[in-house]
């Protein structure tokens, strides 16, 4: 057993999202806007990442997920990781629904197994393991808005056993039509049409539906491909009010020998939902009043694992030492020498998480 | 210094019975949980044998102490039955429950309710009581519902790695305790039968129209079951504080991936071998010291061959007693890992080895034979529990008597 790592290094990233994020050489240089409330992934040529025989057999989300994982492994220059851990809120819900519809329409008769096989939540983690012949640790979390956070906790504890290991960790969620239809009744998504870039101008209930797949190579050891340090992550489940979240953030920072003054920038997981954003809005007016403020869900939409997009964003800001205009809430100020980024995400005002990132 | 992980309580509901006592009684008396499906409405009710919990949702509501239908899925209800028993057995106070973590496993969450109300849910114009089930296609929904109901806030998580899911909750729960993130974690899984799962497995043609026969040369596939099982894990520090006598120690665990095929195990059982080997190596226990293996033993052609070869490879000439308890409960999928971990705990407590029912014919590919009759007064100290799943996931837990 090697010594316990103090820092966790993000040594590679691959991300597909409703923005053009698959190319690690550019950082939000072109912004895509959407006229409907559902944002889907912008994808590269899959055949550049997946062999054609395999490609034909895979559903859309498996293609997106495997591509993001492959970009990440190439970026980190790791051929096969020591373990693979994925997280997802709804998994392959549209595949699940395809099988379900067939089952209902055909009264449980003459069903083919393809949709069923590709609907299991661990299908992506299994597929990646199969593709790179990784027989190591393999796990999948499906904990709604905390799925990606559970993944990180798992990987961090595993790295405490061996800091030299490389864990390929990631999250994926699709903008499933089934979820959209089922939950729009409860105004989980906005009922009026908006343009995604205007998300934070709205004052109504609901967000816009997003999707994506993001993978990170996490290790207890830095490499020549390191993006940034993940100092720590913590989540809070079902806090009763903003004070509980404020206290949690304060003790989280203290546990990591960091003060609010050390934070150069905070990434706000507000979703544009007038109700669910209440605690986040309170935080921005109180705890984070003096901290430089950026938001992101107008770019990727809301999903259970949107915090994985935020992690990529934070890592990119530290790596490129640059904050794209589209993210900024505040007026311009000197942002040179960015050292610490704090992500505070929320999902449905119930699942909260904090990520502390440091420049290498 | 890392913490040792102890077990202080468990709760279980399966087709064998609605609590630990009833399950133990059935295991001892070779009473399997088969019967025609009568709670779930499916065209396969008389043709595909399954192991159903013969309690309707309304009775489950009453048992868990809820007076009105508040949109709990059957998965949540079965889960709560087992959770409440586990908390009671471990003697946890309200405060201790609140500061516990909850890690739950499921393969489908509330798909049973989602499929029942599918057309209503898919029409945003419709209104009605079915809206209680709006989010039941989400696999994490049941865990939040259970956590909210019993008052857990500290830490939650849901795992889904097909049929090895709840074994992985025990593993991650142990990790959280070992590295002092939590003092206490309740781990396990819940799985309700649904049309979705029955037809899914049926379309894969791995359901046996007769009672399943693990490790038998005539085996034709698995039978599905439902149930829930949760185990309370506590740190050695917590045990020292409370002065509780633990039931057993979770001393080792291994997780690997077969990396062979999306839904099939490797023919040489490499993943199974790796998971068991890791569990033993973590505990510092040699293969000769293992007294019993509760095999995954689904009775599919593929699993039993792969697992059997993995066992032979690890244990060589000295293969310990082993059996699959799936002919009792059917395959309870995400709950199977924790159901069978509890059967291992019962084996340790009772010093009994559970028989592998329905075995008649030796597999020609294997040199090993499962235990067929109940073995009593057998000295059991170290017990392995295997759980494998689609996607190549293999997990193994080592439970040690204290």
Q: How do the SSEs of chain B run, as a string of H and E?
A: EHEHHHEHHHEHEHEEHEHEHEHHEE
Q: What is the number of beta strands of chain B?
A: 12
Evaluate the radius of gyration of chain A. Answer: 20 Å
What is the structural class of chain A?
alpha/beta
**In percent terms, what proportion of residues of chain B is strand?**
15-25%
Question: What do we call the CATH homologous superfamily of the largest domain in chain B?
Answer: Thiolase/Chalcone synthase
Give the H and E element order of chain A.
EHHEHHHEHEHEEHEHEHHEE
Q: What is the CATH architecture annotation of the largest domain in chain A?
A: 3-Layer(aba) Sandwich
Mean pLDDT of chain A: 96
What CATH architecture of the largest domain in chain B do you see? 3-Layer(aba) Sandwich
- What is the CA–CA distance across the termini of chain B? 21 Å
DSSP summary: helix tally of chain B: 14
Q: Major sheet of chain A: order of its strands?
A: 3-2-4-5-1-6-10-9-7-8
**Share of residues in strands of chain A:** 15-25%
The biggest beta sheet of chain B, please? 10 strands, mixed
Using the alpha-carbon principal axes, give the shape of chain A.
globular
GO molecular function (chain B): 3-oxoacyl-[acyl-carrier-protein] synthase activity
Pfam families (chain B): ketoacyl-synt, Ketoacyl-synt_C
Keywords (chain B): Transferase
Organism (chain B): Ohtaekwangia koreensis
